Each structure stands twice: as structure tokens, then as C-alpha cells.
Amino acid sequence: VQLQASGGGLVQSGGSLRLSCAASGSIFSGNGVGWYRQAPGKQRELVARITSVGTTTYTASVKGRFTIARDSAKNTVYLQMNSLKPEDTAAYYCNLVPIPLNYWGRGTLVTVSA
Predict the structure, then answer these.
(1) pLDDT tens figures, 67-102
(2) Which end of the chain, N or C, is less surrounded by CB atoms within 10 Å?
């Protein structure tokens, strides 16, 4: 299994980034998928999730700013992040929901400067 997240980078407060996560094989097929993040010194948290039929939910801190989407044909999920804030700085990972795989991949680092 491979989960390859990409698209992170350094952005100013108020800016936008679009993250992508490609999975090997069809691990996403029929499963809910989520974007998680882990800031330095903090626990990993689930910030957005999308079911196999496209229903989305978001944690309160990103609601209205982040949008999760999936392309089942490409085994890829996306996270459009707008109006970024310094507190969004973290390593971002994708994985299954509600029970993530033990394998997390390398994630992609998002740094938002004030």
C-alpha cells in the first residue's frame, strides 16, 4: 500500500493550496477517506472526510475554508485549502476513515506564515 500526499508548501496567511493524495491500487474504493494533519507537538487530527458516495464533513476549525473531493477513477483525494491561517501549519496526510491504515506515508508539509 502506498499513500502519496503532495502539494504542500509555504504560503502567506490568507493564501491557498491544493493537496493531492494518490493511493496505490484500489484501497480507496468503497471506503471513506480523510485528510488528517499533525502540527508540531500536537496529536494527529482528522480535518476532513469524504464517504464513498461523496458526503463530506469537516472539523469546525476548517469548515468553510477547506474542501475535500475525490476522483475514484484515479484513486486520488484532494483538499482545497483557502483562507489559510498560521494555525493550519502542519504535516498533512490522507488515510482511510473511520479506521486508518497503519501505514501513513510521508505526508506533505504545509507552512502558513503570518
Answers:
(1) 999 999 999 999 999 999 999 999 999 999 999 999
(2) C
CA nearest neighbour of 99 among 19, 1, 31: 31
Q: How far apart are the C-alpha atoms of 48 and 15, rounded to whole Å? A: 19
Residue 60 and residue 47: Cα distance in Å, rounded?
8
d(CA 54, CA 103): 24
For residue 55, give the amino acid letter: T
C-alpha dist (Å) from residue 36 to 31, 73, 114: 16, 22, 22
pLDDT the model gives residue 1: 82
Q: What is the mean pLDDT of residues 53-73?
A: 97
Is 90 exceeded by the pLDDT of residue 25? no
| Residue 85 cell numbers, joined | 491561517
